[in-house]
């Protein structure tokens, strides 16, 4: 099994052109479809489905986004570096941002782009200072996570900017879990953190909103390799049919 870096998302035009050739990590959930999803996420498949993915890859159909989504994605793209630096300050380990797109010889028709890396062998500040910078509404999150990933070497970092209330409940949307699991398998890294800068709602005064930085550790699930085997085979068939 070999892993190769094939594109740099910093060169956006090249990256967009390269990703057309692959089924990417962010599309895996939509490709699998609602039969493999929690029923509460049925809305996701209205424009994130196999038909839409095939149209984008092979017919040049550009995906349309609502104004809300377009603005949110723009904020997220520009804020990624700031989110990474706040996460680094809170967690106490060095965080390296990246724009690396990888492929893996086991799944040659799949690709994953990595936002960054967490280096637990490089301290930014001491464990006793972890959590001093209160980026998270729950003051225990950063100290607990610092200890949990201590000594694990390098992990992946996926960054999000979100208005979903699920983050503050300690929940990661399953479509993001599918994305990170795919990233972990394609890169061969055993663990990662998905970190969202999101909005927390005051528990009693619902009209009050506050910024919240919510990181969650995700470990590589060996069973996900079976999912990727199937997705790779299905996308290979689609490539052959549309060649």
Task: Give an overview in words.
This protein is α/β, with parallel strands linked by helices. It has a single domain, classed as Lambda Exonuclease, Chain A. The protein is built from seven helices and seven strands. Strands 1, 2, 3, 4, 5, 6 and 7 form a seven-stranded mixed β-sheet that branches. Strand 3 and strand 4 form a beta hairpin. It is globular. The protein starts with a strand and ends with a helix. 31% of the residues are buried.
Contiguous uncertain segments of 5+ residues: none
**Averaged pLDDT:** 90
H and E string: EHEHHHEEHEHEEH
Class in CATH?
Alpha Beta
Our count of helices gives: 7
What percent of residues are in strands?
25-35%
Q: Which term fits the overall shape? A: globular
Largest sheet: 7 strands, mixed
End-to-end Cα distance: 26 Å
Backbone CA Rg = 18 Å
Q: Do you know the CATH topology?
A: Lambda Exonuclease, Chain A
Total discrete domains: 1
CATH architectural type = Alpha-Beta Complex
Counted beta strands = 7
Helix vs. strand class: alpha/beta
Q: Considering DSSP H and I runs of 4 or more, what fraction of the residues is helical?
A: 25-40%
